[in-house]
Amino acid sequence: MGAQGKRVPRAVREQQMLDAAVATFARRGYRAASMDEIAEAAGVSKPLVYLYLHSKDDLFTACIRREAAALKAAVRAAVELDGPADRQLWSGLLGFFEHTAAHPDGWTVLYSQARTVGEPFADEVAAMRAEIVEFVRGLIAAAARDADCDDGDLAEREVAALAHALVGAAESLAGRALGGTAASSGRENAATLMNFAWSGLANLMDGRPWTPSR
Amino acid sequence: MGAQGKRVPRAVREQQMLDAAVATFARRGYRAASMDEIAEAAGVSKPLVYLYLHSKDDLFTACIRREAAALKAAVRAAVELDGPADRQLWSGLLGFFEHTAAHPDGWTVLYSQARTVGEPFADEVAAMRAEIVEFVRGLIAAAARDADCDDGDLAEREVAALAHALVGAAESLAGRALGGTAASSGRENAATLMNFAWSGLANLMDGRPWTPSR
Hints:
Two copies of one chain form a homodimer. Helices cover 76% and strands 0% of the residues of chain A. The first copy, chain A, has ten helices and no strands. Chain A folds into two domains: 1-54, Homeodomain-like (Arc Repressor Mutant, subunit A, Orthogonal Bundle); 65-205, Orthogonal Bundle (Tetracycline Repressor, domain 2), CATH 1.10.357. By secondary structure, chain A is an all-alpha fold. Chains A, B: Pfam families: TetR_C_46, TetR_N.
């Protein structure tokens, strides 16, 4: 703090505070984390944290929004939109798993802390999740159009359900990898999901759905 | 209450209290739900709830344990263990989705409330989830042995990852169905997951994994 602190631009200081807050919330949990700890971790005074980010609630919301935006951006940037459908899915999954592996604290804040604390934070995460599902839905729908599956046309509701299933599977694998019980790389997780999902989707798009009667 | 209440056996009374508690926790949330409301919904006096179930924490724990046990039992009972691998998976998924659709309050307590309130309740749900993943892992491992996939042998760690992916996908679809945004039946959800997962697993067990280079 003091003279040196004042020379750092506000935008930079805020990012430092958010870095410290994400790390602290992830380690200690929303309730246990104190503004004192966060200020200390950021190397600033507590009044400066309040001046810039107003309250613990606002600070936590800012953390969720930043981490959610970063995760969404990582997935969008990773998808090779000009590639074939399986390549698009693979590149998006790789982006998802590599981002979550590189930002475990962000994942913890989004998927454990924000949900744990409940409303209104859980709503922020639900909104981010809905955006990711919608993005994946678009990828699957485009793949279905490319595959030109006219007979047995993949109904829109089926595509939406597949997107939900894929996102749920990805979250489960990411949570497992970050829970420390399995040392699997982002690449391994993405490959697992491609094996799991893509071959299934590929059959579906070829008009070969699985049926209970066969 | 009163004379009539006393004639009801304790075990029956406790189940009535748990029924009322699950419904109340699901609708109001753990924190907002009061022991007064729960007693009223169960048609008993508040002291009787405390006498039988001790505290709000203990009552909530009893709800989680009962709903978790019911969900696990429903899945185990549904699996047609003497059928072929895809039939086993299909029957288990059907059991999962039909049980969660029939017990939306139980699902809400397990997957929203218990996680929202945090430790130690979240640990109970994590333990239930680990048991379900382990059960699914066993099914996939048995299917892999049946398929006799010696070359390209499905490594144990891959089977575990697939089980996590499948459970995550199932949870995501169940949450979507219960969130009210999609009116999909248990049968539709199970079929979606079979299309998504089984065809993928089947290829995998035939030694035809998806590879990024193809």
